Amino acid sequence: RHRPTLEEIDAARTPFADSLWEAGPLVAADTGAPADRAPAQEVVSPATGAPVGHIASASPTDIANALSAATPWDAPAADRAEVLKRAADLYEENFGEIFALLAREAGKTLPDAVAELREAVDFLRYYANGASDDRPAAGRFLCISPWNFPLAIFTGQISAALAAGNAVIAKPAEQTPLIAHLGVSLMLKAGVPATALQLLPGDGASVGAALTASDRIDGVAFTGSTETAKRIRASMAEHMAPGAPLIAETGGLNAMIVDSTALPEQAVQAIVESAFQSAGQRCSALRCLYVQDDIADDFLKMLKGAMDALRPGDPWALSSDLGPVIDADARTGILDHVAKAEMDGRLVHRIPVPNEGHFVGPCIVSIPGIAALEREIFGPVLHVVRFKASEIDAVIEAVNATGYGLTFGLQTRIDDRVQHVTEAIEAGNVYVNRNQIGAIVGSQPFGGEGLSGTGPKAGGPFYLTRFKAPLERDARI
Ligand code: NAD
């Protein structure tokens, strides 16, 4: 396959510089907007505040119509697979518009947008290959997705549910409905029946909550915060059939240990990528670094130097390698957290960012003692804890005690330590001597344990099985 060069990518996205996108619910047999649908709201760029388009949220009538129309996709598995692969091709062909929307609506830099499209396409092809005619429990799946991978995670959930023969009702994050609309439009264009894939944009608290309280939904795929997953679990228990599956991928308090044998350049690069890329808005992002105290001073000096080389700016510009956080609420929440640390004298380093939009300066905050984070700070804030060589088991204990278990990183050159730490740590994905970022669909399934998710891991051989049959309930979420 031809991989576009940066110049080709730039040429393809440029025509969309001034475009405005109009989008709304995609409901089968739609005969026009129902009377209770509110006027469309403006969507603006998190980097500049410039308008990106308008989105009409789903009304109660849209929701009722979508629930009545939803019909499992009963085409033979080979036909479903072919359609999903055609959708992958259409995603690739429309890369210019996709990159423009990812940059403008979600604040993604170009390298992030390239990686995101790649992942979305990989999900479509990977799950298409897993489509089978063995569908004991195909039904109506609700797919609720977050804004931080508004195309990749959104497409991953939907393509898995469709590959297993379900009907899908997709509820995208309120911050990124336009890219979701484009993704669904391309899947419908590829040949997914309109009754098998419908889009209901709108708030979690209204549209999302109404859907998770419907007894016409047979299962839910959810990616987002642990708090929302618990709310959805409770609503499903009250309203849906017993055993209705919840496939949840949730938050993390991801840690990394850097011991005194680690290669410093390698570890610094891994940390900068893991903590600050995508402005720290990845579920896998490094939140808490445990660095051995005898190297800590020199190591932090190197890390600060590497941070100073980051270039935050409008993600639409090719020169930027760090975008904004998603919205004003996110920015305020992160800045409050950093301000408290600063008042306590724990702000170690911060780099400047543009004044416009929702930028947050990547920063380092220290934590005294052998402690772990108490809550996820979803932004470019790296917490640092110093530990003594004798305290490594206390570090592992503190990290495990959080109850979260998404990603974990280790930088060391001691073989026994690799074995000891990777066996003792409770996390879905462990990264040794590399960056702590996501996974590769098909070869590195991704997902958390405990409060970080119900499993099985996305992009892995067992994921589709959960869309095919009722499940046991997970105890933690
Ligand atoms: P969120 O939980 O606020 O929202 C996620 C989705 O849930 C949105 O579509 C939202 O509208 C919907 N929602 C909110 N309340 C709802 C309700 N009561 N009923 C039904 N739906 C509701 O999360 P977010 O801020 O969009 O995303 C960030 C979070 O997602 C972080 O915690 C991050 O760690 C997590 N995340 C996890 C993974 C993973 O693979 N484990 C991947 C990406 C993001």
Please give a quick description of this structure.
One of its GO terms (biological process) is L-proline catabolic process to L-glutamate. With 477 residues, the protein is an alpha/beta fold.
Spans with pLDDT under 50 lasting ≥5 residues? Answer: none
What fraction strand? Answer: 5-15%
Shape summary: globular
Strand numbers in spatial order across the main sheet: 11-12-13-10-9-15-16
| Derived structural class | alpha/beta
Number of helices: 15
What is the CA-atom radius of gyration, in angstroms? 22 Å
| Fraction of residues in H or I helices | 25-40%
Mean pLDDT reading: 95
* Small molecules held by this entry: nicotinamide-adenine-dinucleotide
Distance between the termini: 41 Å
Q: Total number of β-strand segments?
A: 17
Reported for the largest beta sheet, the result is:
7 strands, mixed
Structure notes:
The chain is globular, with a radius of gyration of 22 Å. With 477 residues, it is of the alpha/beta class. The strands form 4 sheets. Strands 11-12-13-10-9-15-16 form a 7-stranded mixed beta sheet, with helices on both faces. Helix content is 39%, strand content 15%. The longest helix is centred in the N-terminal third of the chain and has 21 residues, at 110-130. β7, α9 (226-239) and β8 (246-249) form a beta-alpha-beta unit. It contains 15 helices and 17 strands. It binds nicotinamide-adenine-dinucleotide. Nicotinamide-adenine-dinucleotide is lined by residues 144-149, 153, 171, 173-174, 204-205, 208-209, 212, 223-225, 228, 231-232, 249-252, 283, 376, 378, 406, 448, 452-453.
